[in-house]
Amino acid sequence: MTVPAVTVTDVPADSTLLDVREDDEWAAGHAPDAVHVPMSAFLERLDQVPEGPLAVVCRVGGRSAQVTAYLRGQGREAVNVTGGMLAWEAAGRPVVADGPGPAQVV
């Protein structure tokens, strides 16, 4: 199954950015308005996934493509963010950290 994808510059303005990376990746650096539901706990935390359109992101796009396919199979409106957070950071999009030190995508 091919999942619909968008580049970081084409993330729909009306969608919620859903970051499915793990806790340590999230803490090091994430998009300021993203919602974090790690892929490893996705099914247990499915109730934390916001309603409405979703743009799903991970580090490079593999995990987020799997989550996007799952969400679309559940009838949800979701697209994969091509290149993930590495592309987000490279495009100069904002990144914030939860921990000490400068924000960075790991």
TrEMBL record:
UniProt cross-references to PROSITE patterns, sorted A to Z: RHODANESE_3
InterPro entries on file: GlpE_sulfurtransferase, Rhodanese-like_dom, Rhodanese-like_dom_sf
Domain Rhodanese: 11-97
Protein name: Rhodanese-like domain-containing protein
Species, as recorded: Actinomycetospora aurantiaca
